[in-house]
Prior knowledge:
It is globular and about 50 Å long. It starts with a strand and ends in a 6-residue tail after the last helix. It has one domain: Alpha/Beta hydrolase fold, catalytic domain (Rossmann fold, 3-Layer(aba) Sandwich). Helix 2 crosses helix 3 (72-82). The chain is of the alpha/beta class. It has helices spanning 16-27, 47-60, 72-82, 99-105, 110-115, 134-138, 167-176, 194-207, and strands at 3-6, 32-33, 66-70, 89-93, 118-122, 127-131, 154-159, 180-185. Helix content is 37%, strand content 18%.
Amino acid sequence: MALIYLHGFSSAPNGNKGRIVRQWAEGRRIPFHAPDLNLPTFETLTVTAQVEAVEALARSLPEPPVLVGSSLGGFVATAVAQRGTPLRSMILLAPAIHFAARRMAHPAWAAYRERGEMEVFHYGQGRPLRLGPDLFRDLPRWQDDATWRIPVPTRILHGRLDEAVPVAESEAYTARNPGAILEVLEDDHGLLALPSLARLRAALEAAFPEFSS
């Protein structure tokens, strides 16, 4: 078995939550993978490239893995599950449910939709980077996630104060997917408050009961 961490938009595998999940896994000698999802590059980013990379990684492992997905990484995890890759379970951290549909309509992305490019601060690189038109062209194929029914056991942690992804998105996901359990936390999108990190560790222990300390 293995643990795969999927980082969010304009981020990197070694972000705060990625390091925490890595430390938890390595402390229990659980094989850990955290692919860089800035694929093919951040400028030419597409959800399709991200999903296909995670599918290939998961299918290369000897057993179905646990996916931990943060924000956009959470959406990618659900797409991988929907497309049939065998998974042990998923832990979704403020998942960007309806990522494509919201980006296609959100006012903050209006200029990007018109021009096909915008500058985005990339937290993994620590500097602004150009995002080109490839993502916008790719988004329409991922707009139908409200119709997905995913039987994979899933635990969702979502902050009540999240301004990036409304907690209502996770509530709706849980309502239409009976295998999902939602924990609403007193936190924002980062989920870095100490009680939130404690719930993350508890979710990891529940996913790997044989390695619980």
